[in-house]
Amino acid sequence: MAGVQASAVLRAGRWLLPLTIPVCCVVWMLLVFSPPTPELDAGHRQSFHPSDQRLARAQKKPAAVADRCAARYIYVQDLPSRFNADLLRDCRSLSEWTDMCRHVANAGMGPRLTRTGGVLPPTGWYDTNQFTLEVIFHNRMRQYGCLTTDASRAAAVYVPYYAGLDVGRHLWGFSNDVRDALAEDLVGWLRSSPAWAAHGGRDHFLVGGRIAWDFQREDGGEWGSHLLFLPEARNMTALVLESGPWHVGDVGVPYPTYLHPSRAAEGSSGTLRDSVIDQCARSRRCGLLQCGRGRRRDCYAPGNVMHHLKSAAFCLQPPGDSYTRRSAFDAMLAGCVPVFFHPGSAYTQYRWHLPADHTRYSVFVPGDSVRNGTVRVEDALRRFGPAEVAAMREQVIQMIPGIVYRDPRAPSTGVQFRDAFDVAIDGLIRRVNSIKRGLPPRPDDDDLRRWDGYFDMR
Ligand SMILES: *[C@@H]1O[C@H](CO)[C@@H](O)[C@H](O)[C@H]1NC(C)=O
Ligand SMILES: *[C@@H]1O[C@H](CO)[C@@H](O)[C@H](O)[C@H]1NC(C)=O
Question: Organism's domain of life (predicted)?
């Protein structure tokens, strides 16, 4: 299903495939073992005690007590069920090829993985479909510690519309009118809601668990809906799996992976890192992490995946049908250093979730240079000595908590780690603050501009 995200293909990544086989040999040479476990960003976790801030209490806090939710309140639009719950109820119609009813279960995480070779942690692993982000996000929002029923106090307004599940039903074999119907219905509903008026919807955001391309049909186009081109949506922010190069109002957030811990230390022993790396390293089922079930072409490594995990320093992430691929996140979960061939595969996408300095956690090899034969991937990777690779791998591992989506059903009591949702909400609130103050939604960033040459700018 991932392979058919965009029929009008942005970039063909196939040319890289023949090149990846020799690279495996290099990869196997670079045996890397990580230094001892650091405490995973323990300093940050103190700041988030959702249980203290549940809605009811927050509403009647005495004025004298400093409000921990100040400038962090989120108001959730109370949408009619046709925009969310009904899509789940009618899950049979969500995909012709995939049983989405399985995948929307468990708050959007999908079925639990149990027969995992007996080595994965007993909890936290799910057969998660990449298109269920909207459901996971909505359920995480229900646990958000700073919800408010007073829109005028809100830093941002969440629109729990399952945009991707909606359009996903109609991508193949439907008219544009059918594809757009619910999106147009939505913006009409929003415009007439009381919360819209204060900022013309510019404090509103929604989540689309697909690439922006699927919501950006131009006039005369034949793919996707035109949701993000509707005037109302242009005022809003859309969190998507891959933003378009022209960034209408769409911001990239991580693909959901198979891991959804409920706490930093899932289970009784060790940290999240232990559960991911060590336990995974001993499990055959880690093939799941590396290759996306049974899709060998995403795997790029010969032989047994357990060996791969321990020995592969680098995981190649050539663009597929679009710039990004979920496997980049799956690979990072396995502690593998991603190698990107286009800045659109990560650096211009996940600015809230990945370090600005991409050399700390990844390798960039310009795809064009590989294509015209001036650079060999193998040579590019051989430049890195074991210590450099170990440092990058360590950085990748430290990034894991911030790129996974916590189990949305987990009680928000006690000290929690900051997951991809928390990071997204922080970024979103900063963005909406800028917009409200009449500033650009994102800083004019030289660091980003340097990549402009890699995109066909309009
Ligand atoms: C978008 O925001 C602007 C500025 O607040 C506002 O004037 C305009 O009416 C909004 N558009 C819609 C469709 O509400
Ligand atoms: C190969 O591609 C790179 C990157 O686009 C370019 O700088 C270089 O000049 C090209 N070399 C040849 C021989 O085409």
Answer: Eukaryota
